[in-house]
Design goal:
This protein is α/β, with parallel strands linked by helices. It has 5 helices and 12 strands. It has a 10-stranded mixed sheet with strand order 1-3-2-6-7-12-11-10-8-9. Strands 4-5 form a two-stranded antiparallel ribbon.
């Protein structure tokens, strides 16, 4: 009986720490056109059950490649049984080694628990002091419930040894709550007056999205809050702001900070609690993200007065919600 128990435990451990073999069919690539980015590489990590990052991030990658010359790779949660994108599968994102040569990581992850050999590339990227853009649920990107002995278990959003894990320590916040009424109260972005001339906000005049404002309570004092989230009474951009304490004060919505890791390297961080595929229909939000990609890859002086963020091709994102992803889609279908 004891022998059987040890065999099952070992099998379970190997399942959690060994990733399925990856192939080029497991991710989407978009080659840069033009010379502005000079071949700089952006890796975009999608993997959330609710906010359709598997739709929003490829759309952003197409803009970044076609209009700004970045070479972009979008990684997905892949079901190894059929090679299709499966956001509900929390334990497999093939191609994480692309981060080894990346200049920037843009991420929208939620409660992922990747095999150690995949996760190691992400941890090495962070430890190298490279820049990160975290969207929406990236504040709670990782949750370790299966392999708590992993050397990366402290990235868990509820970590006690590294309080708040990756979200709180690196991005500046972990998951707190829905500050707005989820699915009933949308978000208007209000630019902080003291940062209205910041390069990241160049050309950004309007930000609205159907997702709600998140609670944010842990930001370090050195954080710069560029945009605050105004809770609206309904799900339309023309709805009035909600009266009362929910908007007094307004929660941080977009912020930047520097994360100084234990290895002495400093990461340049931009976080926004917006970023669902439907949020990214806001040209203002897309422009802010594109500006950030230029800024964080050393091209801040080249941020245009009004960056072109028009879609490359059509974009009709699915509404946010659990179980609403398009089944059977493979990365090659999105290129």
């Amino acid at each position: 009986m004891i022998k059987k128990f040890h065999c099952l435990t070992l099998a379970a451990f190997l399942t959690l720490t060994a990733a399925p073999e990856a192939t080029a069919k497991d991710w989407a690539t978009y080659e840069g056109k033009g010379h502005l980015a000079n071949g700089k590489r952006i890796v975009l990590l999608s993997g959330d059950e609710e906010y359709r990052s598997e739709e929003g991030l490829p759309m952003l990658a197409k803009i970044l490649a076609a209009r700004y010359g970045f070479n972009c790779t979008v990684l997905f949660a892949i079901n190894p049984k059929d090679g299709a994108i499966d956001p509900n599968l929390q334990t497999n994102i093939p191609g994480m080694e692309a981060l080894d040569s990346a200049d920037l990581c843009v991420m929208l992850l939620r409660f992922r628990e990747l095999p150690d050999e995949q996760m190691r590339h992400f941890v090495d990227y962070v430890n190298a002091g490279k820049p990160v853009i975290g969207l929406r649920t990236s504040t709670h990107a990782f949750a370790y419930s299966r392999n708590k002995q992993s050397p990366f278990a402290n990235y868990d959003w509820q970590s006690k040894t590294w309080p708040g894990g990756f979200g709180q320590q690196v991005l500046g916040e972990t998951w707190i709550n829905h500050h707005g009424d989820h699915g009933h109260q949308s978000t208007r972005g209000i630019i902080s007056p003291e940062f209205k001339s910041h390069p990241l906000l160049r050309g950004v005049t309007d930000i609205w999205g159907p997702t709600d404002v998140y609670g944010v309570t842990h930001l370090p004092a050195t954080t710069q809050v560029l945009v605050r989230g105004q809770v609206l009474t309904g799900m339309n951009p023309t709805d009035a702001p909600l009266d009362g304490p929910k908007n007094n004060p307004m929660m941080p919505l977009v912020w930047i900070r520097n994360y100084e890791g234990s290895g002495g390297k400093t990461n340049q961080i931009l976080t926004t609690t917006m970023g669902a595929a439907t949020d990214l229909q806001s040209a203002g939000l897309r422009r802010l993200v594109v500006n950030a990609c230029l800024w964080q890859t050393g091209l801040g002086k080249k941020i245009p007065a009004h960056a072109n963020v028009d879609y490359v091709g059509e974009y009709h994102p699915s509404p946010f919600g659990f179980g609403k992803f398009k089944t059977g889609v493979k990365p090659a279908d999105l290129e």
